[in-house]
Write a structure and sequence with these properties.
Elements lengths: L7 E3 L34 H6 L7 E2 L5 E5 L7 H4 L7 H12 L18 E4 L13 H18 L3 E4 L1 H12 L7 H4 L3 E3 L4 E2 L10 H15 L1
Parallel strand pairs: 3-4, 3-5, 5-7
Antiparallel strand pairs: 1-6, 2-4, 6-7
């Protein structure tokens, strides 16, 4: 259907690197027209037949923080057209963004939230039965993510779950990603970018969620 290398883990980054994030405003409606990089994509016939819509990246295009999920959920982004909305994982992530002041909303159930970050996925279409995307599907879709990151030039990238971490680590960190349980809430940083992996909201404990929020708060506030 149509569109609806020199890195090392550290505890935190110097606050000065992110000072400008405190003063920028997200009140204006985001212009996402230049970031609909997967518009009309038919690279994966199985996903084309299954999807309700292509779920493009969404959020504040001036933000330096980008969250990267696995793929749209069949009860969430595949219905709303916005990553991490409506379903349980989406509501949980949106609540965390509110807690971090990366959203201007107060209700995590809002389906077109005013964000102070950008949220996207490795794969733009919901796989059948909400399964994990195949290697071929990831390979087909990954260039869209690199196009987004090239245009956004973020300073913090948060891969959400194992699929996203495995997709971004080789290029952004310079090595294969360990299991998400080993790198959750660790900061892998260089002069250019920080990668902060997050366990998937569907499977994260309250304690692990609190640990991630504490690390991120040091970076963005």
């Amino acid at each position: 259907m149509g569109a609806c290398s020199g890195f090392s883990p550290i505890s935190n980054l110097p606050e000065a690197a992110f000072n400008e994030m405190r003063t920028e405003s997200a009140h204006e409606q985001p212009d996402l027209s230049g970031l609909r990089v997967a518009e009309g994509c038919t690279r994966c016939p199985v996903l084309v037949a299954n999807r309700q819509c292509i779920v493009h990246g969404y959020g504040w295009t001036h933000s330096r923080v980008v969250f990267v999920g696995e793929a749209p959920g069949y009860k969430g982004g595949d219905l709303t057209g916005i990553p991490f909305t409506r379903d349980r994982s989406g509501v949980r992530l949106q609540r965390m963004l509110i807690d971090l002041a990366l959203s201007e909303e107060t209700d995590p159930r809002v389906e077109r939230p005013r964000l102070r970050c950008f949220v996207t996925n490795v794969v733009r279409c919901n796989p059948p039965s909400n399964r994990t995307p195949t290697r071929a599907e990831i390979t087909n879709c990954l260039p869209y993510l690199w196009q987004e990151l090239e245009r956004l030039q973020p300073e913090i990238v948060v891969p959400i779950g194992n699929v996203a971490a495995r997709a971004v680590f080789p290029r952004l960190v310079g090595r294969a990603a360990p299991p998400i349980t080993q790198v959750h809430a660790h900061v892998f940083a260089s002069d250019r970018i920080a990668v902060v992996p997050l366990r998937h909201p569907a499977r994260i404990s309250n304690a692990d969620l609190a640990r991630f929020v504490a690390v991120m708060r040091d970076l963005v506030q």
